[in-house]
Design goal:
The chain has 306 residues and is α/β, with parallel strands linked by helices. 39% of the residues lie in helices and 22% in strands. The chain has two domains: 182 residues, inorganic pyrophosphatase (n-terminal core) (Alpha-Beta Complex), CATH 3.90.1640.10; 112 residues, Diaminopimelate Epimerase, Chain A, domain 1 (Roll), CATH 3.10.310.20. The strands form two sheets. Strands 3-2-1-4-5-6 form a six-stranded parallel sheet. A five-stranded mixed sheet has the order 7-8-9-10-11, sandwiched between helices. The N and C termini lie far apart (42 Å). One of its GO terms (cellular component) is cytoplasm.
C-alpha cells in the first residue's frame, strides 16, 4: 500500500511542491508513495505547476487507515481532520515542532531553514537520487516563495545553495526574475473574492489552548489593498466568529518595502500589542522589517499567550 505525502490545510507552494518532490523521491528508493493535497492550489502555486508541466496532486481530505508522510508542518490544527486514525510514517518540516504525536516510530527531517523543499533537497542528496529537471523547477520556486527571494530572515545559506543547485538542474539562468514573476501573480488581487484572499495563505495555531488564525498576503506594493482593506478587516472578523477563534490576524506584506501591516481582530488585543511592543490603531499595526510569519510573528505571539 502506498503512503500519501501531504502538506497542510490551505496549502501553499512549499506544501504542494514538497509533496510532489518527496513522493517522487520515495518511489525512487522503493517506498511507494503518492502526493496529495488538503485544498486548492493558490494562484502562485498554480503558476508554478503550469510553468513546469505538473497537474495538482490528488485532493484528498480523509486519511483514516492510511500511511501518511507529513510535509511542511507538525501542527494538529493544520493536519487532516482524521489524522489520529492514520499512521504517520514521517515528517519533513522547517517550522517549530508542533503537537502531532504518533504511536509508532517515524522518520523526521526537521531543519531550521527557510523552506521544506530545502530539506527535501538534502534528502535527495542523502539518498543519492538524481532530481528531474521539472521537479527541480518546482522545488526552486517553493524555496524562492518561502524565503521571499532570500529577503526573509528565515533564509539560510542552505536555502541559497539549494536554489543555485536546483537552478542548474532546471536550466534556469535568472531565478530572481522567476521569483518576481511569482510575486506579481501573488499581487494580482483584483476580482478575487475577499474570503479567498484571506484564506490564500492562512494557518490556525493552538496558543495556550486558544485558537489563533494568521493569514498572510505577500505583494510587491501594498497599494493594491487600498480599496479592499476595510472588506478584509470585516471578513477576518467574520472568520473569527465562524471558527470560534480567540484572534485572527492578517499580514499584508510588502516585499519591496520589507515590512508588514498587521490587521487584528481579537478577544484581547492587549496580548497582540504586548507581543509586538506596539499599540494597535483601529485594529492595525505596522511592523517594519517583518516578512516571516514563522519566525517573526508566531513566536512572540505564542510567548505573549503563554
Amino acid at each position: 500500500m502506498a503512503m500519501y505525502v501531504v502538506g497542510h490545510k490551505i496549502p501553499d507552494s512549499d506544501s504542494i511542491c514538497g509533496a510532489i518532490a518527496l513522493a517522487y523521491l520515495k518511489n525512487q528508493i522503493g517506498e511507494p508513495a503518492k502526493a496529495s493535497r488538503l485544498g486548492e492550489p493558490s494562484p502562485e502555486t498554480q503558476f508554478i505547476l503550469d510553468r513546469f508541466g505538473f497537474e495538482a496532486p490528488e485532493l484528498k481530505m480523509s486519511y483514516a487507515g492510511e500511511e501518511v508522510y507529513i510535509v511542511d508542518h507538525s501542527e494538529l490544527t493544520q493536519a487532516p481532520d482524521d489524522i489520529a486514525q492514520a499512521t504517520i510514517v514521517g515528517i519533513v518540516d522547517h517550522h517549530k515542532l508542533g503537537d502531532l504525536t504518533t504511536s509508532t516510530p517515524l522518520e523526521c527531517w526537521i531543519r531550521p531553514v527557510g523552506c521544506s523543499n530545502t530539506v527535501i533537497k538534502m534528502m535527495y542528496d542523502f539518498h543519492g537520487v538524481e532530481i528531474p529537471k521539472d521537479i527541480a523547477g518546482i522545488m526552486l520556486c517553493a524555496i524562492l516563495s518561502d524565503t521571499v527571494i532570500f529577503k526573509s530572515p528565515t533564509c539560510t545559506t542552505a536555502d541559497i545553495r539549494c536554489v543555485e543547485d536546483l537552478a542548474k538542474i532546471a536550466g534556469i539562468e535568472d531565478y530572481e526574475a522567476l521569483g518576481m514573476e511569482m510575486f506579481k501573480v501573488k499581487s494580482a488581487v483584483d476580482g478575487t473574492p475577499v474570503r479567498d484572499l484571506v484564506l490564500r495563505d492562512f494557518k490556525d495555531f493552538n496558543m495556550n489552548d486558544n485558537l489563533v488564525g494568521i493569514g498572510q498576503l505577500e505583494v510587491v506594493d501594498l497599494s493594491v489593498f487600498d480599496k479592499i482593506k476595510a472588506d478584509l478587516e470585516a471578513d477576518i472578523a467574520k472568520l473569527k466568529e465562524e471558527g470560534q477563534r480567540h484572534t485572527v490576524m492578517l499580514l499584508l506584506t510588502d516585499i519591496m518595502k520589507e515590512g508588514s501591516e498587521l490587521l487584528v481582530v481579537s478577544d484581547d488585543v492587549n496580548i497582540v500589542e504586548r507581543a509586538y511592543g506596539k499599540d494597535t490603531d483601529a485594529g492595525r499595526i505596522w511592523l517594519d522589517g517583518v516578512l516571516s510569519r514563522k519566525k517573526q510573528v508566531v513566536p512572540p505571539l505564542q510567548e505573549a499567550f503563554a
